[in-house]
Amino acid sequence: MEKNKYNYLQVHSSLYINSNTRMLMLIIYLLFSAKSIYFLDRIHKYPFINSFVLLVRTIRVTQISYIYYKKKQLLKNHSELSSIISSNINGQCLIALRQGEYKVINFKNKKVVTIFPEKVQLEDVQKQINNLIKAQSCDLAPEILNWNLQERCIVESYINYRIPFYQFKSKKKFYVEVFPALVNIMTSQVPKVISSELYFQRLVKDIHELNNKYNKNHKHVNRIKAFISMIQDNYERNVIGDIPLVFSHGDFCDRNILKSKKDIKVIDWSTLGKRSCYFDFYFILFIRLSEARGKYKNNIAKNLEMDLINFNHFIKAHLDKVGDLSSKRNYRYLFYLEFITLRLEEFSVNHDKRIDITQWIEVFEYYEEIVEDRKSLINLGYGSN
């Protein structure tokens, strides 16, 4: 591991640039080698603006380069800068992640190094390393080049593919590209068949334990409990029988999908696990639902059930024990429970990071009102007090 210290200057909420990087090289790297950096292409939540990819990227690169220039001048003049991250890893860009870890990207060497902070226990770092090793069973995952537990780092190959943006109107493109990727992930390991009833009960139990143990916000604790109570009251017992728990990415969304003209890759496998077969499918669509506004949000919500039916037809040809959608509600509830469990597990690892699960419950409620014509939890008597 390199012994020199490199200073990375903040130029965006999560993006930092190495102070040794020359301005011309920075512009070249950001324009041509940083296709996988999401916010360089996506600055607006309305799809018609995001469709002008090259224009948006050029504007963002210009803005970031100017901010970098100003901060580098301040650094030269020995002005105090609070937004600096120092690392012994040399690269051109550093991206800070939500759990406190960060990624250093070296465009020249085509490597990305993930570094975990000291507050993360070594056993949790080992878990992340193990997850990335498990992800190698899927040919969509980037290659692991090296790792060092004591230095809390993992080295992967850098993939300079562009992040696709699936507009609401381009359903065919979404189905053609996303459905095969989901099946590729699901079938990378042998599924585990389990009673849906037992799995449902286990998820509820895990959520209550994690919620009471790690969530110190009593209002949030009660809000989560109310939502779980609603699910328990409306879950249809003994309808879907045994289900397969399949290999799941856990954070499958547009920004973790990288695509070239002939190939597709999926990055950031830290949340992988065995989950219900619709988890990753629901995840990408609910992420889009949470980020959409106005008519786009309503359109995504109203068409999600049809997307589910189409996906069900697609995966039945590749996976046993899927069967018909005898209860779309139950599969949806399993997703809600798995999602909340995943977020609470993140909270247990990083106590300093406030993870507002209640915002996601609002998204789920919004969808329930549309698909089930069901009022909010408060109106149903599941108050948060």
TrEMBL record:
The chain crosses the membrane at residues 21-40. The keyword Transmembrane helix applies. InterPro entries: Kinase-like_dom_sf (IPR011009). Keywords: Membrane, Transmembrane, Transmembrane helix. It comes from the Bacteria. This is Aminoglycoside phosphotransferase domain-containing protein. It comes from Guptibacillus hwajinpoensis.
